[in-house]
Amino acid sequence: MSKGLTMKKIIASLLFVCALFSSAYATSYIIVEEGMSLLVGKTKIYNGTPVEVKSQSSKNATVIIKGFINPLDAKSLYATKNLKLLLAQVNDDSMIQKAGDQGTLEIEIEAKYLVENADLAWEKSTDRFYEKCTKCHAAKVVKDHTMLEWEGLYESMKEFAKPTDDDTSHILRFLRAYAKDGILSE
Amino acid sequence: MSLSRRSFLKGGLVGSAAAVAVSSNVASAEELLADVKKIPHASHYGAFYAHVQNGKIIDVSPQESDKRPTSLVRAFVDRNYAPSRIKYPYVRKSYLEGKENNKALRGQEEFVRVSWEKALDLVASKIKACPKENIYNGSYGGWSHPGTLNSCATLTGKFFNIAVGGAIGTAGEYSNGAAGPTNPGIVGDMEVYSLQTAHEEILANTEVYVLWGTDLFKTNKIDYGVANHKNDEYYIKYRQSNIKFISIDPIRTETAKMLNAESIYIRPNTDVALMLGMMNHLYTTKKYDKAFIEKYTQGFDKFLPYLLGKTDGIAKTPEWASKITEIPAAKIKSLAELFVSKKTFLAGNWAMQRAHHGEQVDWALITLASMMGQIGTPGGGFGFSMHYAGGGQAASGKTGIGGFSQGRNKVKVALPASRISEAILNPGKEISYKGATIKFPQIKLMYIAGANIVGHHPNTNELVKALRTLDTFIVQEPWWTPTAKMADIVLPSTTTLERDDIGMGGSYSGDYIYAMKKVVETPYEAKDDYEIFTLLAGKFGEVTQKKFTDGLSAMEHLKKFYEASDAAKVKSFEEFWKEGFAKFDIPADAYKFVRHSAFRADPVKNPLKTESGKIQIFSEKYANFGYSDFKGHATWFEPAEFLGSKEAATYPLHMLSPHPTYRVHSQLDNSWLTTLYKVQGREPVRINPKDAKKYGIVNGDVVEVYNARGRILAGAVVTEDIRPGVIAIEEGAWYSPEDVFGKDERCNSGHCNVLTSSRPSSEMAQATTINTTLVAIKKAEGVQKQNVAYVAPKTIDA
After folding, report:
1. Could you tell me the sign of the dihedral formed by the alpha carbons of B626, B630, B634, B639, in that order?
2. Coil, strand, or helix at residue A66?
3. Which residue in B513, B519, B461 sits closest to B758, CA to CA?
4. Which residue of B has its CA nearest to A151?
5. For residues A86-110, b (16+ Cβ closer than 10 Å) or e, as one string?
6. What is the DSSP secondary-structure string of B104-166?
7. Residue A150 buriedness (CB in 10 A; 0-12 / 13-18 / 19+)
């Protein structure tokens, strides 16, 4: 290993430790191998959801999920104000601490469901998008369109892509996450 | 009735396949003793069996999925043996020699044959030496063939993304460059590709069917996937129905004739004015559907002042529209009243929006349809894709075959189609695009596989000038297209008949998967597109190559693609490959599909993907872009050149360039089929007898069509089927300058894009405006050299 690389690792570790002791918690992402979501008791947390790691042991982690609340459905947390990208659903809405149109859910999960790299967490959905949507033409730049625009574009093209329902769930979640008004950048 | 071979084929039908010989392969007596194998294959023109004897195709016969086979399949097969095939890898002479200032010689000098190894080494070294931000992937679209394994556009994208991290791409498209990006904001969907109301619903409910610039019969001959020509069976029923057909078109199309349509010969590019005139009449006479407007649309109140002339002082009355469109005001009023009194379907098209301010036309038509109030009803409303890929056919709803993922492109610059010349010639220039700004990158290297930019791009002389500034231009093609002739490095690819692949069709019905089996060996050194990119990936290292192939063989990929489909649940890949196709049943409900019916039934539960969930007659988002040439509602903008503009004094004819009758764009222009319709070896130009007389032209003359952008030679076809003041030259003739060393020489082939403008539609979509073109015409003067468009360039093969 080169000296440069070692130094970079040390700096990265220091930054990570500093982040842990700062007022803001480190951000990680939920990663689920099978299906679209993780079930913790009766709480469903969707793949790719960004979480703040409040504490973590080798086995478990207490995480905070922040999001927006649908006034008609206080049991769901969404990534953005337009309520298009679902992050988590609880059985009992008292689990979500509310502040205006936003809410916070604190929950303990197994640490194995956390990953620091957002792209890695979203890889499954990302791959599905590129597999279904670039077999005939090049992909549009995802950041060039809003979630709503992507929904319209997807409606236009799905007859040709002939996706399964599972494909559609993955593709729309990916597009919403990385859209102009999404939470991530490619 | 006797039918000559010529008229038989011109009708577009092949009723008895064995009656017509394919190509010039005449079997000798001894050859007759050999077995004839029938090998399944598929194309944009239909699925067929190639009859192969002694390694040669001697005939073709249609597969059962092709309901009305056309002569295009025979041209497709014939093209395999065309003299314009690229036989070996080549490098342009002075480029190979590394001479300075050799760029200007593109398209003008001989090519030197090289080995595959040398060609691929050269290509790889050029790509490695060029930053990915300066590489333009010009493998536009997927029209080269319907095969998934060798899809040129997909493979090029996949290769660049894996090998170097990406390349500059294309945003939008030529076909629907204006409407495609605009319609989602208006109706929540591009609409131009959406599933259309089923023919059954049209036949059962429609009373008036408006062919608004659309030529159903002609354009449905081909498909982005594999054509099935099922629509032709419906058109017979259309003709036998009580539906009144009205064609609003400067051309009397074959469809209009077949359906006995009333023709309204509108001035080109003035359809928005006609629609506004109708809307004004419906509003002022209170004959519009107020309830629909209130329940299903947003922003009518912001559009109304414009319609009534309160914002600009010009009321968009039928009388106002009449002056622009040259359709009598009384006719405009009676059409509007007919549309609201009968169940009316407005079948739009794509050609109208390939014009200056082309964004407006679909928006205006959707607004008119909203005022008519029939959107979402069986047989009423509008559709923009009845003319495309079997539009109106019921969909199987089944999951189709898989394909390659291109992966992520790290170069986040995509140029709007039609801006390529401008971008190459103006690096660093900034343009508006859909509310944002694009800065043109510097393009140094262009790679094109299976596409013909010197065919589909406007203003050919400007494009040629741009191509002569590149550092490197690589083309991968089976034929010496005008684009290949402009290249530095030419890689010969096989035709689909020379390799195995898999495809689907029709695009809407989605009911067949086809084994596109290898029919014959390539007689040349051509390689499959998949193999070429695999070898090229190998030049970037073993890991790159493995990532490109996923460690699978071509046949393993085909199996994987097939097994991703629902067909694999009932038929194994091995059975499918042996039989040549797999078929899905169409569910009964699919024949009852009515576009927008869910939205109409419950607009709250089934909102459109728009700002309000309703049809945006006014869009706040679009208004906020602040463009002077694109407003918040449908607007009439006078085109930069049309029959009503002052430029018409110099160039008095409006040239339209419709989709070709006997080609897919430029494909098949190098086949024997052209001998049936070309005039003295040149693309026909349709001209009205009044104009022909005015300019001293008679049927069959070679004429020069010209404007400030260029000059072409075409063959006159004098016909009443086109409006006076308008000429039509179908797009796709292979560009062929009379003198390759000259400047802005006449195109001896009749390639319409020599005359078209690269002016963008607006700041919104920056789309092509090829149908906004004024020209003049005269009988050709001077020496008329032989058209060598389909002849290979001079090569040094030793």
Report:
1. positive
2. strand
3. B461
4. B609
5. bbbbbeeeebbeeeeeebebebebe
6. GGTTTS-EEE--HHHHHHHHHHHHHHS-GGGEEE---SSTT-S-STT-HHHHHHHHHHHHTS-
7. buried
Distance from CA of A129 to the nearest CA of B (A): 8
Å between B627 CA and nearest CA of chain A:
19
Which tokens belong to B178? 């204006």
What CA–CA distance (Å, rounded) separates B788 from B738?
9
Is B191 near chain A, with CB under 8 Å? yes
- DSSP for B270-310, please give it: -HHHHHHHHHHHHHHTT-S-HHHHHHHEE-HHHHHHHHTTT
Please name the member of B154, B170, B510 whose beta carbon is closest to the beta carbon of A134.
Answer: B154
A8 has a pLDDT exceeding 80: no
Tell if the CB–CB gap between A159 and B195 is shorter than 8 Å. Answer: yes
At B696, is the secondary structure helix, strand, or coil?
coil
The per-residue pLDDT of chain B, averaged, comes to 94
The reply to whether B195 touches chain A by the CB within 8 Å rule is yes
A148 interaction partners in chain B (CB closer than 8 Å): 609-611
Residue B594 has pLDDT above 80, yes or no: yes
Distances (CA, A) of A38 to A31, A42, A67, A83, B462: 8, 10, 17, 20, 57
Where do the domains of chain B lie, and which CATH numbers do they carry? 5-81 (no CATH), 90-167+411-583 (3.40.50.740), 184-395+592-624 (3.40.228.10), 646-779 (2.40.40.20)
Task: Report the C-alpha gap between A98 and B502 in whole angstroms.
Answer: 54
A166: distance to nearest CA of chain B, Å? 11
State the amino acid at position A76 in one-letter form: S
pLDDT of residue B221: 97
Spatial distance between the Cα atoms of A49 and B727, rounded to a whole number of angstroms: 59
Between chains, do B405 and A134 touch, taking CB under 8 Å as contact? yes
Q: Would the ipTM clear 0.85, i.e. be above it? A: no
CB-based contact, B649 to chain A, within 8 Å: no
The tokens for A119 are 């792209």
pTM for this prediction: 0.93
Nearest by CB: B405 against A130, A156, A163:
A130
Q: Hey, is B495 helix, strand or coil?
A: coil
Strand order in the sheet with B46-53: B37-43, B46-53, B56-62
Distances (CA, A) of A36 to A33, A49, B29, B174, B441: 8, 11, 66, 37, 39
3-state secondary structure of A3: helix
* Contact between residue B451 and residue B210 where contact means Cβ atoms under 8 Å apart: no
Q: By the 8 A CB rule, do B248 and B271 touch?
A: yes
Contact across the interface for A136 and B193, Cβ inside 8 Å: no
pLDDT, tens only, B148-172: 999 999 999 999 999 999 999 999 9
A-B contacts (CB, under 8 Å): 103
The answer to whether B683 touches B750, Cβ cutoff 8 Å, is yes
Residues of A with CB under 8 A from a CB of B: 126-127, 130-131, 134-141, 143-144, 148-149, 151-153, 155-157, 159-164, 186
The Cα–Cα gap between B199 and B590 comes to 10
Window 383-442 of B, Cβ < 8 Å to A: 395, 398-400, 402-409, 412, 414, 434, 436
Q: Which one of B148, B193, B196, B563 would you mutate to disrupt binding with A, by most A Cβ within 10 Å of its Cβ?
A: B193
Q: Calculate the CA dihedral of residues B475, B481, B485, B487 and round it to 10 degrees.
A: -10
> Which of B393, B417, B383, B386 has its CA nearest to residue B176?
B417
pLDDT digits (tens, 9 = 90+) for B389-435: 999 999 999 999 999 999 999 999 999 999 999 999 999 999 999 99
How many whole angstroms separate alpha carbon B440 and alpha carbon B57?
47
Euclidean distance between CA atoms B27 and B17, whole angstroms: 17
